[in-house]
């Protein structure tokens, strides 16, 4: 299992567009991926789960993955958050 913590620096946190991009990116990987905030963890491949966290700008979220592509999954999701959900 690989886990990394990253700060939400974008203005709106994990709002609908950012959450959709996060889920779309997470679904590219075979690993099981979770997103955690303040002790609550959700499936990172579920937009409902992510939206239920209510993650705002300035908060630290933990991204964890377990599976054959866990390192790549976490690195890509951290990169997405660090780049404020801008598509490359």
CATH T-level topology: Histidine-containing Protein, Chain: A
Helix content: 25-40%
How many domains is the backbone divided into? 1
Structural class: alpha+beta
Mean pLDDT level: 95
Q: Could you tell me the radius of gyration in angstroms?
A: 11 Å
Unreliable residue runs = none
- The CATH class designation is Alpha Beta
**Sequence of strands across the biggest β-sheet:** 1-4-2-3
Instruction: Give the name of the CATH superfamily.
Output: HPr-like
**Silhouette:** globular
Task: Calculate the terminal CA-CA distance, rounded to whole Å.
Answer: 27 Å
| Count of extended strands | 4
The largest pleated sheet is described as: 4 strands, antiparallel
Provide the succession of SSEs. EHEEHEH
Summary tags:
single chain, 88 residues, alpha+beta, Histidine-containing Protein, Chain: A, four-stranded antiparallel β-sheet, 3 helices, 35% helix, globular
Descriptive notes:
This protein has 88 residues and is of the alpha+beta class. It has a single domain, classed as HPr-like (Histidine-containing Protein, Chain: A, 2-Layer Sandwich). The protein has three helices and four strands. It has helices spanning 16-26, 47-53, 70-82, and strands at residues 2-7, 32-37, 40-43, 60-66. It has a four-stranded antiparallel beta sheet, with helices on one face. The model has no long low-confidence stretch (mean pLDDT 95).
